[in-house]
Amino acid sequence: MAERAFIALNRRANAQRRYPVVLLDEDMEALDDSTGSRRRSHDALRQLTADGRLRQVRRGAYVLGAPTGGSDARLLAILDAVTPRPYLVTAGRALAETGLSDQHFFRVVVLAAGRLAEWSWQGEQVYYVESAPNRIWGELGPDGPAIARPERAILDCLADRRFGVSLPQTAEAIDRAMRIGMPLSQLVKATRRYETAAVSRRLGFLVELLVGADAAAPFLRLRGASNKYVPLSPFQPAKGPADSTWRVHVNIEPELLLAHRTTG
């Protein structure tokens, strides 16, 4: 019975073009047709899970094992199958996927339209951040996992320390983006749409440090009306020299933001 169920689940996952992911809400009827009853289907699922041929990712979502044992399924492919759209993989993982970081970020930050529970796969953790649907924008393309474009990922890195990307890592990503030819106007346009003054100030400071004052000038109009200073690094307290141009407390040594140029 378990073998028959395993074959049925493989066929169903392939037919739905999401192999090796099994979604019970969508696949149970096909499984019941194979086993003959819902009770037998549940028995087969328990047996396949005990045998290691079916691995639970989250409630109602499983990954089929390869014929040789184990699974070589990529986390992003699984994520795409089990996460309702709209969603957006952003911050560190998006930087790595778009070539702006050599770091491997084991925490995958995902903006999602609803409240979703965290889950993990082969040592990597998927962390969902509930967001309004109109704030989930900036994906690379319509096909495959929804990964943030470089400019959107950079903005998210500067917005929230929970996303786990340090300011030096973000500075290096901006530097790389400029070197590979990302138009600065693209970053300005995304910043305007982001509508977060603290992020605009942090980004303006970094662009001026990395590229120069002329390049950073378009960000001056996006600083917001408030005269209250914000910390340059969201990871540190709002201490340090005050930069009146960008209205930030420079709470990290600028040399650390340029260190990648000598060590990278």
| Structural shape | elongated
Stretches where pLDDT is under 50 for at least 5 consecutive residues are none
Biggest beta-sheet profile: 4 strands, mixed
% residues in beta strands: 5-15%
- DSSP E strands, number: 10
What quaternary form is this? Answer: single chain
User: How many helical stretches?
Assistant: 12
Overall pLDDT score? 92
Q: Secondary-structure element sequence?
A: HEHHEEHEHEEEHHHHHEEEHH
Helix content: 40-55%
Question: If strands are numbered along the chain, what order do they take across the biggest sheet?
Answer: 4-5-7-6
| Classification by helices and strands | alpha+beta
Radius of gyration: 23 Å
Q: What number of domains?
A: 3
List keywords for this structure.
3 domains; Arc Repressor Mutant, subunit A; 14% strand; 264 residues
